[in-house]
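Support reply, case 0932

Customer input (verbatim):
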Amino acid sequence: MTRKHYDELTPAARKRLIVASLLRAGASVTLLTAVYYTIPLDRPLNAATWIRFVLGLGAFAAVIVWQVRAILASDVPRLRAVEAVAIGLPMLLLLFASTYLRISRDAPDSFSEALGRTDALYFTVTVFTTVGFGDIAPRSELARILTMIQMITGLVVVGLVAKILLGAVQTAVRRRESEGPATAVAPDGRNPDTPGRG
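Our regenerated output:
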């Protein structure tokens, strides 16, 4: 069996690959959003909330590392990068939205209006995109601190993570081009000409 590079695929095979990638990305966004709208977020705000928030940021970082490795190993790194963004960005936004919602439910005067799930997600997206309509604003010190953390995290994600993902795509493309034509692949997915790892 041979594994063909994207450029060597027929137009129909390319289309199937793109559709499959977009379906996986859409399914990831849908699943993450469904989880956000169904998990219980009415517990009181306490130290456990902040531990879960920090663990969520750690999980986001782990997902990015895993996605970078997947991009580097992929024969279709650009499509893999699209999937990485489709998983990582909603995960980060929904983490902040969940925390804003918990703050609003615990202390309703923390924002200019009480937040529901959609309101919290809307506020999160306006902060991330730097639109800032001003219709929902943080009022308490805690809400403002978390909003500042999101602003800084957003800058890091847009700048650093985008650079890392783009670098991984470029590295994978260069590796693929240096390999030349498609290589034979064993049924288990390994190149039979490459010595096994001990």
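We compared this against your earlier run and they match. Two observations from our side: The CA atoms of residues 64 and 161 lie 8 Å apart. Residues 183-187, 192-198 have pLDDT under 50 and may be disordered. Please reopen the case if you see a mismatch on your end.
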